[in-house]
Design a protein that fits this description.
Elements lengths: L2 H12 L4 E6 L5 E5 L6 H13 L3 E5 L2 E8 L4 E5 L3 H13 L2 E5 L15 E3 L3 H7 L6 E5 L4 H14 L3 E4 L3 H13 L4 H4 L2 E2 L11 H17 L10
Parallel strand pairs: 5-6, 5-8, 6-7, 8-9, 9-10
Antiparallel strand pairs: 1-2, 1-4, 3-4
Helix pairs in contact: 3-8
């Protein structure tokens, strides 16, 4: 690879931006395509499919052959609330190949005994997210039912363009949440991105079943994400 392209590739990966290294096999020409860039024709369609699947491979477009080397930032889940659902979700996320962190300032809940082997931070989300910012390859799951804990990270997730934003609660609870966030200046169109009630509708009842429903919805959101969504700085 050209040293200039290699430096750009490494810079994009450090910044947690998805890119594909496209190499034309016949001529050896190569380039870097960032997620969201527009590439016309069949090659563009193949590139979009590769971004969504995350799989590298050979493609043929307009009589030419290309190798698409896909570099996606590791998708991660940030859970606000060290509750029973979070315990189950940590297990399901690991099996599904997603990194997961739990943030909860309530030290009675956020204990190593309850979350052994999990990236657990017993602090306020406002403080944690300053040093561990959200991004487009992060799913935010808010499950405390406490506006003092949940509302700030929900706003941050929407403003950061997280590919999934979900919040636990009944429709009545979510309606009050929407009123609070709207009063705080979050645009209505942005608020409509919040998945609530959280998770796919599979009739889940137990914490483990709810965790499965949430994980399924996260996977669906990631694999069907809008590749042309505006990337915020």
């Amino acid at each position: 690879m050209d040293p200039i392209l290699l430096r750009r590739l490494n810079a994009e990966r450090r910044a947690r931006r998805a890119v594909i290294h496209v190499t034309e096999l016949e001529g050896g020409r190569d380039r870097i395509v960032r997620e969201g860039d527009t590439v016309a024709g069949p090659l563009g369609s193949a590139i979009d499919a590769a971004f969504l699947s995350g799989k590298s491979g050979l493609v043929e477009a307009e009589g030419r052959h290309f190798f698409l080397n896909v570099h996606l930032p590791p998708a991660r889940i940030v859970v606000i609330g060290a509750v029973h659902i979070s315990q189950a979700l940590a297990v399901v996320a690991k099996v599904s190949g997603y990194d997961l962190s739990v943030i909860d300032p309530r030290t009675a809940f956020a204990t190593e005994e309850r979350f052994a082997g999990v990236d657990l931070v017993a602090d306020w989300p406002e403080d944690v997210l300053k040093v561990r910012p959200l991004d487009r390859y992060t799913a935010l799951v808010a499950v405390t039912h406490d506006p003092k804990i949940d509302d700030f990270p929900l706003r941050q997730a929407l403003e950061s363009g997280c590919f999934y934003v979900g919040a636990l609660g009944s429709r009545k609870t979510h309606a009050r949440r929407m009123e609070r966030l709207l009063a705080a200046g979050v645009p209505q169109a942005m608020l409509e991105r919040i998945s609530a009630p959280i998770g796919l509708d599979i009739g889940a009842a137990s914490p483990a079943e709810i965790a499965v429903a949430i994980m399924a919805e996260i996977i669906q959101a990631f694999r069907r994400r809008n590749l042309r969504a505006e990337e915020r700085p």
